[in-house]
Q: What sequence folds into this?
């Protein structure tokens, strides 16, 4: 139910699938090799949402997001985290993810880019996310046309510019954020 497919025109090195929190909910990781030879660490997620039929609370989803935030923070080089996070951009947990990971949300200041629910225009919100390290500049972002899924695809074109990296390093965690992250991990 929360499986994923990752397709790439660029070579993927060190690709692996892990089950960080739930045995049937995968996360995928790979180094994407750019034509220049530069590698970018990519994380692909689709944690299960809180639901009366699956998870009574958001705990497993929140734990996975904090775990991946910590992984992404420790890597240092160019990195991306993307997927259907089953959480809105303004939630406490997504903001905590941004603070712990140090990653940027390219949508900030550019619009909502509501990706779900594609079939009901009156009820839409941004569940699909892409977070980037400061090594990237946004060239283009747009929500694509309906293609039959309950989600819209989001097209993002990035430019890797490590020499002129953005000065903005995202949200900074304070002691309360760090305590909240520890709490979500337990």
A:
């Amino acid at each position: 139910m929360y499986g994923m497919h990752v397709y790439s025109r660029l070579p993927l090195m060190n690709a692996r699938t892990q089950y960080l929190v739930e045995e049937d909910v995968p996360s995928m990781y790979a180094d994407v090799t750019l034509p220049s030879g530069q590698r970018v660490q990519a994380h692909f997620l689709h944690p299960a949402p809180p639901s009366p039929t699956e998870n009574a609370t958001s705990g497993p989803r929140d734990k996975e997001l904090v775990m991946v935030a910590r992984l992404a923070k420790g890597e240092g080089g160019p990195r991306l985290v993307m997927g259907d996070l089953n959480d809105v951009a303004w939630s406490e947990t997504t903001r905590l993810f941004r603070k712990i990971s140090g990653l940027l949300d390219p949508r900030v200041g550019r619009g909502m880019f509501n990706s779900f629910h594609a079939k009901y225009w009156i009820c839409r919100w941004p569940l699909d996310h892409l977070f980037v390290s400061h090594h990237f500049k946004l060239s283009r972002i747009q929500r694509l046309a309906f293609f039959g899924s309950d989600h819209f695809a989001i097209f993002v074109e990035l430019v890797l510019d490590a020499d002129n990296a953005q000065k903005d390093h995202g949200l900074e965690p304070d002691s309360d954020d760090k305590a909240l992250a520890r709490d979500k991990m337990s």
